[in-house]
Request: fold
Amino acid sequence: QPEPPLLNSVFLGGPLELEHGFILHSPLSDQTLNERSQFLNDQLMMSNANSVLTSLGTDEEPDKYIVTLGYASWDAGQLENEMLENHWLTVDFEDELLFHTPTEDRWEASLNRLGLDPEKLSTVERIQNGIPIDEFRYKEYLEISNLFSNCLIND
Reply:
């Protein structure tokens, strides 16, 4: 049990280096801790610094944060090509969507912001290593992968 205990969930950030943690968070009041994070936009930062991680559960923690283990990675130009080929749907960053929408509702809420109805999307059985992936696990994996895929969050 960590001291102080952490109350928020820890998410899968991707399949690589699961022993490494990353924190997506709001800016901190402590400038020293902010210097250990990368600004993604005025409302969002990302860090893997131990000093930021150990601030969680204390008075120094960010107002809003998500902790993940692992990350997703692409070869040079691969992600850009996938986006050009419309393999990805992206939404502009919204604090409400990321930090205040329940995890199980984020996928549908993101589609709704794009004017898409998930009920009207085609269903294709997804296979991983010859095993069908149930739709919820697939949506959850996509959401978490998208969270840290080279900061696809637009300002």
User: Anything to note?
Assistant: The helical segments are 31-34, 50-53, 78-84, 95-100, 103-113, 135-147. The radius of gyration is 17 Å. The CA atoms of residues 93 and 153 lie 5 Å apart. Confidence is low (pLDDT under 50) at residues 148-155.
